[in-house]
Amino acid sequence: MSNQELVVLGRNDETDACCPGLLTAPLDEDQAVELAKVFKALGDPVRLRLLSMIASRAGGEVCVCDLTPAFDLSQPTISHHLKLLRQAGLIDCERRGTWVYYWLLPEMTDRLASILTRPAAEPLPDRAATATAS
Amino acid sequence: MSNQELVVLGRNDETDACCPGLLTAPLDEDQAVELAKVFKALGDPVRLRLLSMIASRAGGEVCVCDLTPAFDLSQPTISHHLKLLRQAGLIDCERRGTWVYYWLLPEMTDRLASILTRPAAEPLPDRAATATAS
DNA sequence: ATGTTGTATCGACGGACATCAATGCAACCC
DNA sequence: GGGTTGCATTGATGTCCGTCGATACAACAT
Lengths: 134, 134
What we know:
homodimer; alpha+beta; Arc Repressor Mutant, subunit A; 3-stranded antiparallel beta sheet; 5 helices; 3 strands; 39% helix; elongated; HTH_MetalResp_TranReg (chains A, B); ArsR-like_HTH (chains A, B); Transcriptional regulator (chains A, B)
């Protein structure tokens, strides 16, 4: 059911370490290709809402039967979007009896957040702070 | 030069406040549409590398003439990608004499990072305690 | 076994997107 | 002025992607 997910998650603590992240050093092409796949998965309103519904669920899991009726889209379309989110490593799922449940993989969102976070204590001598007097 | 950028940046501290963010409450459709535009802009390896090169630049600015030769792509293509990043509110630019300089708008990346950050100290009673269904 | 319900996959179609060559425009230099 | 360089825009083209109906598959009910 799931065998070709992206390998952008931790594990390879050598190629990109844990937190150099996009804003501090020029991304090499391989890293850019992998990262772009994840961001592309987030680049659709339906998938963003799906992810949000899954992530904000109290129990941590959502049944597909609760997701599908929230959209004006066909059931195959929702299934397609869930598949893309899963291939991006953002969620995972499990069949339990008749129903299939999805949950968030917080490792990926954590990784994206840290990638987008600039180093806190940068000297930052440039233009941005030129007008502040206090 | 720049007049139709997205309005996802702060400013409207009422519609979505400052930090509810994607993982805690179901995104409504309008928010999802706006957010998806930004993530879509990040969903391309070339644009990710461009953004990374711009953001990690010491002086805070990069001349287009330094960006274009770093890719095996035509000059119009690079210009096109820079335009998309700018329309997403991730960067801005200014012409200075013969050359055009681009710089990062950290408000947007900061916003994305906070949106992807889950609340640190959530009680997280999760699945074990929710067995009282019917 | 047969039927029913929940979910995934397939094939097709229309629109969106990445890319290019050609061209336009702005700023410099002679 | 005319020529040159840096960058943006235009128009065209091939590919990708979101969507659907039809269908297949899995689990349960009878």
